[in-house]
């Protein structure tokens, strides 16, 4: 810190010199701006170190699952402890990133958007599937236990193999398709407000896999489509623009042996979904749709 | 990615502490269901072997009802049956899509009601056995 003070003096001096030599005004201004900026950076630096010193007592205790089949010493899974300095508003993801950047650069986990949109950082935190970037440290009890999602194969540290989840998602044809086209070639395909409202929640899935991991039916039956995939199917099956042929087709996929009927209403998916999608309600509605579709007397 | 570590079943069952209402309801429903199935078969087996004469039937029933342990098991049977019925009603509502947001409350309600009914029935069940 002490070295920074003379530095600023120096720049001031050089500025004074340039002033006496009457350099163009624009250049003066530029130099002034630079000096300002330097000061601001220093200010921030000072604040940060102060903060860190202050938060020395205010550290969060993390226990993080470690495993790496490719490294000799890590083949046996274990928990590593990290003490991460806390700042207000810190999420579990922030803490993990701090641990990775400051303590152990080999700590591996997925993340991208940091705002609950990309769905890549669902993990098992303190005994529950949570989205790390959406979970405040202050809401959790210490030590905060971070593990990879259960019921999925661990590739390394907190990274699990999502391939099976994506396969299930793709199995329900998660895209809009219709043969119920409007007459005119340039006509728009309109959706009523009520219909949009109906599928609204189901469109919010971010493919994080938390629901699938929390469901122990999905854990026991690998072929079960799982809550996320069924919700995805709901989004399109309930969309009026797809027409009745498509709906039939979708229901046929859903009412297979490992489709909607596997759900035994444990509600664990609904409980963990970071997007608050009423998954169980959607699955139940599709069950009723499937029955109606087969009985056809109403 | 050649191999990956599978955490196995032991860990799954160690997670019961983190279960929420819906999961407990599911576990209890399964458990009580199996108990009832078991009871039904014993019930049929015991009574059908006692059907030789009217006297044999009476003897069997009396022999069973004399034992305190049977009386206590009967209370347990009632508890299991009542919970299974009430939670069955809850599941019926869930299947009809009624009150899905209150599913945890209806689970607690069926637990409390089961408890109340069982406690109220204890005097009748154990009368004369002890
Ligand atoms: S339904 Fe919810 S929990 Fe499941 S993948 Fe989508 S966002 Fe994640
Ligand atoms: S980092 Fe994108 S959802 Fe958490």
From TrEMBL, chain A:
Comp. bias regions, Acidic residues: 9-20
SUPFAM superfamilies from the UniProt entry: 2Fe-2S ferredoxin-like (SSF54292), alpha-helical ferredoxin (SSF46548)
Keyword annotations: 2Fe-2S, 4Fe-4S, Iron, Iron-sulfur, Metal-binding, Oxidoreductase
Coiled-coil annotated spans: none
Cofactor(s) essential for the protein: [2Fe-2S] cluster; [3Fe-4S] cluster; [4Fe-4S] cluster
Compositionally biased residues, Basic and acidic residues: 33-56
InterPro entries, alphabetized: 2Fe-2S_ferredoxin-like_sf, 4Fe4S_Fe-S-bd, Beta-grasp_dom_sf, Helical_ferredxn, SDH/FRD_Iron-Sulfur, Succ_DH/fum_Rdtase_Fe-S, Succ_DH/fum_Rdtase_N
Domain Succinate dehydogenase/fumarate reductase N-terminal intervals: 61-166
Region (Disordered) location: 1-56
4Fe-4S ferredoxin-type domain segment(s): 203-277
Position of the signal peptide: none
GO biological process: respiratory electron transport chain; tricarboxylic acid cycle
GO MF term set: 2 iron, 2 sulfur cluster binding; 4 iron, 4 sulfur cluster binding; electron transfer activity; metal ion binding; oxidoreductase activity
Family that this chain belongs to: Belongs to the succinate dehydrogenase/fumarate reductase iron-sulfur protein family.
Protein name: Succinate dehydrogenase
Organism: Haloprofundus marisrubri
UniProtKB/TrEMBL annotation, chain B:
Protein name: Succinate dehydrogenase
Keywords recorded for this protein, A-Z: Heme, Iron, Membrane, Metal-binding, Transmembrane, Transmembrane helix
Species for this entry: Haloprofundus marisrubri
Regions crossing the membrane: 31-51, 72-94, 106-129
GO cellular component: membrane
Cell compartment(s), UniProt: Membrane
One Gene Ontology molecular-function label: electron transfer activity
Signal peptide residue numbers: none
A Pfam family per the record: Sdh_cyt
InterPro entries: SdhC_prok (IPR039023), SQR/QFR_C/D (IPR034804), Succ_DH_cytb556 (IPR014314), SuccDH_FuR_B_TM-su (IPR000701)
Record GO biological process: tricarboxylic acid cycle
């Amino acid at each position: 810190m002490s070295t920074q003070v003379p530095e600023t003096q120096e720049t001031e001096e050089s500025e004074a010199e340039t002033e006496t030599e009457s350099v163009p005004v624009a250049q003066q201004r530029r130099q002034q701006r630079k000096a300002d900026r330097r000061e601001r950076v220093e200010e921030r630096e000072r604040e940060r170190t102060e903060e860190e010193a202050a938060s020395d007592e205010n550290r969060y205790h993390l226990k993080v699952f470690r495993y790496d089949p490719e490294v000799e010493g890590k083949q046996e899974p274990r928990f590593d402890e990290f003490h991460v300095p806390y700042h207000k508003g810190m999420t579990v993801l922030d803490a993990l990133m701090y641990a990775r950047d400051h303590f152990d650069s080999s700590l591996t986990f997925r993340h991208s958007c940091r705002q609950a949109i990309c769905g890549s950082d669902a993990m098992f935190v303190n005994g529950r599937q949570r989205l790390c970037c959406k979970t405040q440290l202050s809401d959790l009890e210490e030590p905060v236990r971070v593990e990879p999602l259960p019921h999925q194969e661990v590739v390394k540290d907190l990274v699990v193999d999502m391939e099976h989840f994506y396969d299930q998602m793709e199995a329900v044809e998660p895209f809009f398709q219709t043969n119920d086209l409007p007459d005119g070639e340039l006509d728009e395909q309109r959706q009523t407000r009520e219909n949009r409202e109906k599928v609204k929640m189901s469109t919010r899935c971010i493919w994080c896999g938390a629901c699938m991991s929390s469901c122990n039916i999905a854990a026991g039956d690998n072929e079960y489509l799982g809550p996320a995939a069924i919700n995805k199917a709901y989004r399109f099956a309930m969309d009026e623009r797809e027409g009745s042929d498509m709906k039939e087709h979708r229901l046929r996929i859903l009412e297979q042996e490992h489709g909607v009927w596997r759900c035994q209403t444990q509600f664990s998916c609904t409980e963990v979904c970071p997007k608050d999608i009423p998954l169980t309600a959607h699955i139940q509605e599709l069950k009723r749709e499937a029955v109606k579709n087969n009985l056809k007397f109403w | 990615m050649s191999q990956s570590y599978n955490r196995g079943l032991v860990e799954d069952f160690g997670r019961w502490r983190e279960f929420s209402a819906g999961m407990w309801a599911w576990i209890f429903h399964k458990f009580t269901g199996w108990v009832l199935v078991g009871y039904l078969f014993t019930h049929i087996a015991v009574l059908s072997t006692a059907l030789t004469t009217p006297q044999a039937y009476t003897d069997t029933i009396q022999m069973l009802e004399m034992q305190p342990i049977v009386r206590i098991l009967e209370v347990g049977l009632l508890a299991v049956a009542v919970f299974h019925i009430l939670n069955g009603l809850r599941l019926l509502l869930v299947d009809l899509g009624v009150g899905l947001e209150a599913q945890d409350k209806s689970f607690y309600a069926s637990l409390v009601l089961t408890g109340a009914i069982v406690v109220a029935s204890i005097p009748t069940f154990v009368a004369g056995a002890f």
